[in-house]
Amino acid sequence: MIPESEVKRFLHGVQPGEIRAVIYARVSSDKQRREGNLDRQVERLRSYCSAKGYRVVDVVTDIASGLNEERSGLWKIFDMVIRKQIDVVVVEFRDRLTRFGFEYLKRFFESHGARVEVVEESEKSYEEELIEDFVSIITSFAARIYGKRSQRFRKIKKLVEEIIYGDKEDTEA
To answer: What pTM value is reported for the model?
Structure first.
């Protein structure tokens, strides 16, 4: 007899019609953070939430690979979803949330009453995304095996990039 919205408002301090959003932004390296990529990503997402009328309850960021399962920011979002503290997780691109398993995360969040909203759908073809994922997997595993600062890792990364993307001089000619 009591509307669900009223129960939700009472239990979680939510105003009727209010949508509580968490912004999730991620870059792969500290270099990208230093170049301002993370800050620009967050600002674009803030503008998006503002335009949609969402109340941003938190901004969560990670500096890690999308393959890394130990991202503290992502785990924080899981906790917020489980505790029903948010209604929507806003990300710029699907791969900012995760490189693989996006649909699993989306379904898990939905099962707890939250949804994932992707601001920009990728303009890349299926093949381009597959190649990027392939490069990410190889470099991630090589970094784990040899360490990111090792000469062997740098050689493997360079070789994979040359094979996949070709020599820059070849593409410019």
So the answer is: 0.70
The pLDDT confidence band at residue 173, using thresholds 50, 70 and 90, is very low
Q: Which one is catalytic: 5, 28, 72, 111? A: 28
Q: Based on C-alpha coordinates, what's the Rg of the chain? A: 19
Q: Is 23 exposed, middle or buried (0-12, 13-18, 19+ CB in 10 A)?
A: buried
Catalytic residue flag (residue 28): yes
25 contacts 41 by C-beta, under 8 angstroms: yes
Starting from the edge strand earliest in sequence, which strands make up the sheet with 55-63, in order? Answer: 55-63, 20-27, 88-91, 115-118
What are 29-77's pLDDT values in tens digits? Answer: 888 888 989 999 999 999 999 999 999 999 999 998 887 888 999 999 9
**Residue 171 to residue 28: CA distance in whole angstroms:** 26
Q: Does an H or E element contain 27, and which?
A: strand 20-27
Burial of residue 92 (CB within 10 Å: 0-12, 13-18, 19+) is buried
Q: Is 78 exposed, middle or buried (0-12, 13-18, 19+ CB in 10 A)?
A: middle
